[in-house]
Amino acid sequence: MVANKDEICDYPVISWSYTNFKAGDKFNKQRALEIANGRFSTKTNAQIPHYVLKMCNKFKKRVSKYYKINEDSVLVVGKGDKF
After folding, report:
1. Is the sign of the CA dihedral 31, 20, 52, 6 positive or negative?
2. Distance CA 23, CA 39 (A)
3. pLDDT tens-place string over residues 34-80
């Protein structure tokens, strides 16, 4: 997961990538960052896996503290948040 401040809405946006180990995927940090940053750039509406969504909810707390804003103002790419 990565958090970037969106230029349009001026709020932090969480983007993510997911390694499906059950399908035989292997974790690659560089590729994971490319995917997460790509989702941020395109504002994809991809379905967020349950495990990732659970982690995003925890990450939202950290991001809101870092940016000193309300937790509800932090958006997550892919779950239908509107920018």
Report:
1. positive
2. 21
3. 999 998 888 788 888 888 888 988 899 999 999 999 999 998 888 65
The dihedral over CA atoms of 21, 48, 71, 2, expressed in degrees to the nearest 10, equals 50
- Residue from 74, 3, 7 nearest 33 by CA: 3
Question: What pTM does this model have?
Answer: 0.81
Paired sense of beta strands 12-15 and 75-76, if any: parallel
Tokens of 55: 């982690």
Q: How many residues are given for the chain?
A: 83
The tokens of 39 are what? 């989702």
By three-state DSSP, how is residue 10 classified? coil
Answer yes or no: is pLDDT of 81 > 60.
Answer: no
Cα separation, 3 vs 22, whole angstroms: 26
- pLDDT, residue 46, reads 83
